[in-house]
């Protein structure tokens, strides 16, 4: 949603501490002297810190705290900094799109109004649309722990997932405050959009997990087979010896077999646990991308009646968006009159 | 308004969550009835207010923001409402009243799951009397509650920023003044003001989540929705997907509030906050093993491509159980360190046990600390020794195999669960009948790395034993392995090599020097022999006689001081071997110390006087001569600070451009001197510690002005320039004054085992093969100090030379064998 410049732990910690109200001053090569506000002090065990971002600088400055990847101070800063920027509004940087001259052609190329004459534009107006980018943090746990983030963008107006939006939005340089003033397009309840995003996120997680599952499964199979082979062979060998033994010796072999079986079971359980796959999906942050879109009211003649349908022109994609069926909320390129003045997708007709 | 000041209860009913309706019952309905259909203001304990509406029937308070406010204060679903004005109320969370029972409707809802949005589970009131902990929660509680004492949209500790200008000015004042006193005063004065400001300003949405690289013991908030996806073939391949909608709601609420302009933070969270968040996110993620997190943490070492490939292969394909058999000197320690650090950073490993030969304990400990930032406690550390259950208690332990298998330790070692066990020089485990093998076999471990360059010495069965330690059954059982894979009558000749290769590939990695192209340049060593002047030799011999005379007996009667005295005598002998300048300060210090008998002090004084009177420095002259004869940049190494100063001074006086580096310089000064050496200076004079971690490969000539008695130190000196990136052959000049200890050491190391031609690490292998278990420098000092005469000294040194030679031959034969065998069995890429 926004480009994060390259940064070092020093850049990050300094930025975070300043943001949290601390006073940070350069005190030498890779050294920063920090005075924390009272609220922050308990998290860093003191209110006055000397931070060293280089291990030699740290050793030269007794009492300094060496900050590097994996150090407690960096981890604490990361944990606390994650509290910022959980929700952000970003705006389209330019002016609202001007009225589209050939909207009729674009609409008719995009949508087929079944049993109707080609649509004609009645009026166009620009409205502020919000596209919610739900950024999920996904943690896969198996024999290894892998974390990733992925973004699901949902159109606040139509409620549809917008897979292309993120890539397209990267090409613009969004601004914090809008340079335009427009009425807002109707936005669906955020919880509904969230649920849509969750469904999509689950699909993404499943796709991402596919490789992991495949490799975990085959590795587990191999390991179980190997374990079984080893213990079967071991037990067979002990049994062979046992057959030729007598008395105490025989008992001892019996115990060995029991121990081997117990060991076998334990190892199988261990292996199964090691390869069990889990995915945890959490909403990490939310970015509302405001984009002025054109709403074109189209007139469509069906038999002797004139029906109306609003279509949306998205300036980011530079195209008319596929309308959504009001019954199933799914995008559809074919619309049929619903008999009461509106349009629905063919699946709902009759 | 009746009941003014009286508290009544309101409830956040689970089935209404999300609808924006808060139920009013009993007393609450009575209070609200006159306000039905009107707007009221509700304020929470943090001073945040929201406007909401009383429903027409007077039985609900309506407003999503109100619901958000209540949930952010959530403890049990119950809140006390207190009227404080005609249309304003204070609300605070309370525990569930004891008499409260779940009503019938809720029970039905619970059973049927109706009235409940699928992603939003029922919010269960707490058990009677149960209070939510406001300490450091265990993280298992619901999302918001998991934040220690911090309401969702209230200022989290550390999140509250002062009003920018006022707060910064205040802090700046503190920093400039006498800090602690001023800090207290200013805090007291501004406490109230800050509190108000903190409310007005920054209220970032805070929630507990799996941030940071959490350990296996990490407990995240309990998931509210779990979905299982399974292919159903019974191989434990279910994918459990968990969502945490209750946690996520905090963000949605913040968005809603902002959209409605109800949030105090309506214009906060600008792009800079988003960038900060993204950076934090980037730092807290544990990506796949393709991206090694450890790489950003290692220092003083740049892992080579094959080492990174090895680490990734072990992590990804070998699942943390591997036999690392790289040829000597290719950095198995680096590979093991990378793997270990990677696991630790990802929270997959906490408890580590490092089992190494006794002589390498300190080296491993230092390498782990210096290169990987990992502190290990050694078994001989007093804290470890004095602990009742040290094996269980300390998270990272380094011990020798001998110590671990000792009966007194065995139970403690075996009674602990380890996430990772690393065994260096694992060829000591080649025999499955040994105690060491059985100990490692019985260790409870998740991951294990066995490190050895020579896994096979006498039979292929040794390889079987090592691999079985990693993966029992990988090579089947001992008898079937013998039957299938070893040629009868020749235990070192494998058969069915293709099948064996396939199996070995799953657990073993062997990088070979010839394939890695590590360092292609050669080492060319030369001994610069010189004769000390008569005065120098007289001084040297007199000091040596003193050292020999007291090395065994000591110079005081006290037995307690024997160790210290030996150390001092050894130091004197080493210093005089470096330069007179190095030994003089010690002699002067000793002569002034009351700890020694007067006679001894007098000797020290006399020796110091004699040293001062020596007019020439033959070694220094030889150095100047050597430098005059070459035009390249040169590093001159010495082990002593005084010699270092003397040389810097001398060389400058002679007109050489000199840079200097030693342990006393600060980081910036070192960098400056290195820049000087890379630029105009021709000579760099360095102590051993000064140049640690520095890459000086732009220079290819090294002069050992003095020779460390510890051969590994010599290796380290050479390693500063003979490393990756060195294109030219490295020339090493060793200044050797006849008749000194150093001359004998050079004779042993250079003439006998040709150490300067050995590759990195081989010297270690050879010295490790010595029967003598003491440090090399102690052996040398013993021979030197105990020698009755020159003949005796020669005999002693020759004997040591024979032992070293035999150790080298043994090493070479095993190396060749492994090279052939493992080369044959080495998996194809």
Structural class of chain A: alpha+beta
CA(first)-CA(last) distance of chain B: 85 Å
Helix content of chain B: 40-55%
The 3D shape of chain A can be described as flat
Overall mean pLDDT of chain A: 88
Count of DSSP strands of chain B: 22
CA-to-CA gap between the ends of chain A? 42 Å
Oligomerization status of the protein chains? heterodimer
Poorly predicted regions of chain B are 99-166, 178-220
Report the uncertain regions of chain A. none
- Please give the largest β-sheet of chain A: 6 strands, mixed
Number of strands of chain A: 13
Helical percent range of chain A?
25-40%
Q: Report the β-strand fraction of chain A as a percent range.
A: 25-35%
Counting DSSP H or I runs of 4 or more residues, the number of helices of chain A is 8
Specify Rg of chain A, calculated over alpha carbons.
31 Å
Cα shape of chain B: elongated
User: How can the largest sheet of chain B be summarized?
Assistant: 7 strands, mixed, barrel
Structural class of chain B: alpha/beta
Average pLDDT over all residues of chain B: 77
């Amino acid at each position: 949603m926004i480009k994060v410049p390259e940064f070092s732990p020093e850049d990050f910690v300094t930025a975070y501490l300043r943001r949290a109200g601390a006073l940070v001053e350069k005190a030498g090569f890779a050294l920063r002297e920090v005075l924390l506000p009272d609220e922050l002090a308990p998290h860093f065990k003191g209110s006055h810190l000397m931070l060293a971002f280089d291990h030699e600088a740290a050793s030269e400055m007794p009492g300094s705290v060496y900050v590097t990847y994996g150090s407690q101070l960096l981890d604490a800063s990361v944990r606390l900094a994650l509290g910022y920027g959980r929700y952000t509004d970003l705006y389209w940087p330019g002016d609202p799109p001007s009225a589209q001259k050939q909207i009729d052609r674009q609409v008719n190329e995009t949508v087929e109004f079944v049993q109707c004459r080609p649509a004609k534009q009645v009026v166009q107006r620009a409205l502020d649309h919000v596209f919610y980018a739900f950024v999920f943090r996904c943690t896969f746990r198996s024999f290894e722990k892998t974390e990733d983030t992925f973004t699901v963008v949902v159109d606040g107006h139509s409620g549809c997932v917008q897979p292309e939006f993120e890539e397209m939005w990267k090409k613009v340089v969004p601004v914090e405050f809008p340079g335009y003033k427009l009425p807002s397009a109707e936005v669906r309840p955020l919880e509904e959009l969230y649920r849509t995003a969750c469904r999509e996120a689950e699909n993404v997680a499943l796709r991402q997990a596919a490789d992991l599952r495949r490799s975990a499964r085959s590795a587990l199979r191999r390991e179980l087979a190997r374990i079984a082979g080893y213990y079967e062979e071991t037990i067979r060998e002990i049994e062979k010896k046992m057959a030729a033994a007598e008395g105490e010796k025989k008992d001892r072999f019996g115990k060995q077999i029991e121990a081997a079986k117990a060991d076998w079971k334990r190892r199988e359980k261990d292996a199964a646990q090691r390869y069990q796959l889990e995915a945890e999906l959490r909403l990490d942050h939310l970015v509302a991308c405001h984009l002025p879109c054109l709403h074109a009211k189209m007139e469509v003649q069906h038999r002797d009646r004139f029906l109306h349908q609003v279509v949306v022109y998205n300036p980011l994609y530079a195209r008319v968006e596929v309308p959504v069926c009001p019954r199933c909320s799914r995008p559809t390129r074919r619309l049929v009159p619903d008999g009461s003045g509106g349009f629905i997708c063919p699946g709902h007709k009759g | 308004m009746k009941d003014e000041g009286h508290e009544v209860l309101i409830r956040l009913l689970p089935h209404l969550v999300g609808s924006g309706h808060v139920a009013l019952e009993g007393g609450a309905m009575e209070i609200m009835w006159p306000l039905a259909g009107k707007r009221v203001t509700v304020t929470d304990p943090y001073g945040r207010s929201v406007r909401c509406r009383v429903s027409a029937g007077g039985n609900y308070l309506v407003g999503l923001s109100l619901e958000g406010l209540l949930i952010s204060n959530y403890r049990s679903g119950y809140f006390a409402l207190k009227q404080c004005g005609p249309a304003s109320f204070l609300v605070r969370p309370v525990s569930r009243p004891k008499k409260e029972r779940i009503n019938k409707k809720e029970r039905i809802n619970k059973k049927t799951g109706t009235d409940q949005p699928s992603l939003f589970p029922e919010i269960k009131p707490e058990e009677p009397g149960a209070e939510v902990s406001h300490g450091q929660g265990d993280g298992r509680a619901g999302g918001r509650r998991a934040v220690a004492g911090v309401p969702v949209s209230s200022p989290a500790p550390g999140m509250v920023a002062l009003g920018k200008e006022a707060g910064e000015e205040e802090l700046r004042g503190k920093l400039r003044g006498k800090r602690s006193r001023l800090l207290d005063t200013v805090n007291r004065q501004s406490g109230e003001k800050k509190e108000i400001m903190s409310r007005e300003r920054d209220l970032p949405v805070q929630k507990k989540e799996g941030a940071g690289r959490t350990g296996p013991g990490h407990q995240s908030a309990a998931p509210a929705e779990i979905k299982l996806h399974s292919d159903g073939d019974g191989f434990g391949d279910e994918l459990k997907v968990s969502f945490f909608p209750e946690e996520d709601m905090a963000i949605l609420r913040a968005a809603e509030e902002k959209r409605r302009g109800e949030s105090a933070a309506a214009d906060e969270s600008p792009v800079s906050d988003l960038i900060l968040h993204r950076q934090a996110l980037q730092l807290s993620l544990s990506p796949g093993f393709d991206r090694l997190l450890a790489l950003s943490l290692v220092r003083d070492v740049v892992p080579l491509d094959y080492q990174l490939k090895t680490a990734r292969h072990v992590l990804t394909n070998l699942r943390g159980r591997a036999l690392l058999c790289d040829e000597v000197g290719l950095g198995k320690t680096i590979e093991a360190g990378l793997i270990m650090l990677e696991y630790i950073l990802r929270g997959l490993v906490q408890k580590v046990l490092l089992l190494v030969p006794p002589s390498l304990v300190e080296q491993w400990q230092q390498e782990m600390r210096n290169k990987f930032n990992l502190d290990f406690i050694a078994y001989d550390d007093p804290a470890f020794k004095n602990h009742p259950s040290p094996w269980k208690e300390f998270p990272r332990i380094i011990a020798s195999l001998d110590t671990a298998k000792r009966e007194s330790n065995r139970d403690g070692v075996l009674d602990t669960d380890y996430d990772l066990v690393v065994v260096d020089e694992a060829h000591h485990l080649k025999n499955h009948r040994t105690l060491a093998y059985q100990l490692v076999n019985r260790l409870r471990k998740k991951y294990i790395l066995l490190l050895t360059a020579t896994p096979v010495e006498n039979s292929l069965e040794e390889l079987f034993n090592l691999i079985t330690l990693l993966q029992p059954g990988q090579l089947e059982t001992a008898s079937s392995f013998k039957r299938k894979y070893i040629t009868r009558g020749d235990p070192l000749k494998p058969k069915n090599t293709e099948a064996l290769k396939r199996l070995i590939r799953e657990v073993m990695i062997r990088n070979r020097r010839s394939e890695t192209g590590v360092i292609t340049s050669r080492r060319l060593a030369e001994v610069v022999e010189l004769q000390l002047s008569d005065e120098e030799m007289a001084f040297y011999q007199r000091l040596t006689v003193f050292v020999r005379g007291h090395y065994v007996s000591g110079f005081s009667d006290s037995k307690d001081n024997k160790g210290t005295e030996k150390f001092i005598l050894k130091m004197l002998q080493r210093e005089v071997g470096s330069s007179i300048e190095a030994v003089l300060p010690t002699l002067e210090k000793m002569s002034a110390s009351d700890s020694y008998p007067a006679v001894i002090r007098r000797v020290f004084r006399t020796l110091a006087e004699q040293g001062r009177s020596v007019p020439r420095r033959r070694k220094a002259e030889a150095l100047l001569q050597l430098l005059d004869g070459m035009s390249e940049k040169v590093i001159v190494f010495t082990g002593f600070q005084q010699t270092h100063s003397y040389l810097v001074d001398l060389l400058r006086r002679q007109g050489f451009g000199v840079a200097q580096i030693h342990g006393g310089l600060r980081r910036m000064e070192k960098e400056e001197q290195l820049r000087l050496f890379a630029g105009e200076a021709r000579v760099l004079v360095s102590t051993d510690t000064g140049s640690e971690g520095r890459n000086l490969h732009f220079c290819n000539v090294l002069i050992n002005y003095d020779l460390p008695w510890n051969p590994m130190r010599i290796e380290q000196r050479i390693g500063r320039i003979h490393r990756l990136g060195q294109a030219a052959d490295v020339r090493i000049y060793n200044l050797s004054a006849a008749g000194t200890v150093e001359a004998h050491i050079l004779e042993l190391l250079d003439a006998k085992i040709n150490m300067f031609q050995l590759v990195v690490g081989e010297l270690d292998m050879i010295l490790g093969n010595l029967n003598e278990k003491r440090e090399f420098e102690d052996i040398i000092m013993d021979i030197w100090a105990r020698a009755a005469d020159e003949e005796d000294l020669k005999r002693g040194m020759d004997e040591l030379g024979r032992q070293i030679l035999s150790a080298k031959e043994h090493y070479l034969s095993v190396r060749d064998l492994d090279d052939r065998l493992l080369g044959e069995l080495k998996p194809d890429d």
